Amino acid sequence: MSKSMTAFARETHTGEQGELTWELRSVNHRFLETFVRLPEDLRALETGVRERISARLDRGKVDCSLRFAPSPAATGDLRINHRYLELLMAAGAEVAERLGRPPAPDAFDLLRWPGVLAEQRPDLGPVQAQALTLLDQTLEVLVATRAREGQRLALLIRDRCDRLLECVVSVRERMPQVMDEVRRRILDRLDEVRAELDPNRLEQELALLAQRLDVDEEMDRLKAHVQEVRAVVATDKPVGRRLDFLMQELNREANTLGSKSSDLVVTRLAVDMKVLIEQMREQIQNLE
Prior knowledge:
Oligomer: single chain
CATH architecture of the domain at 7-73 and 124-146: 2-Layer Sandwich
């Protein structure tokens, strides 16, 4: 079944290390284009994230973002760089001695000095592993959502195909009457000079005119293209580009029908066809 490129998925996992939340949003695009936003501590995941997305999706612009809220228990310990602190205090004492007054270091001022206090970062390996597992789950939801939306679009496209074929049938039923009417009008116009015309030549000219007005080939191609659209929509492969080409072919045949038409009913049917084709074309833009 065809898949839509428009979908959204959000999945959250809460564990000992904290809370992870993935958000994936995809919209239609000619190719697969991925934008990844990760917390600074988890930037190392980007390559794996892109690989997982490209393995599951073929087309679409995908916004992928991860939020991580560490739990208080997972906060790293604060460690003092004692050697650096001793050097800093010694330097402060030397400066105070040169100024002629005793040093009066403030503990919190010293802690704010770059390099004195450092946070021992927790091991993020388990968090990274859990983030990738959660990403796989989120991608499953996104793919399922795209499939459901694709199924809905496929139903709409099939409905337009049915209505397009109804137009083809109506044109075929109308054409004998159109040809008779054209023949009658021409004969009426030539009635006054019929005696001066070669009957054989007149029949030849009428036959040539009928050939120029004949739309059987256009109707056959329209029907064949519609059947191909229905077959393509039913496949599991990416179908967007193929369907876009078929829409161009359908539109070309509908335009030819309209240009050949000398009948108001057939002209209206050609316009109806172009409207249905345009509706399908708009829906196809969202198919993968």
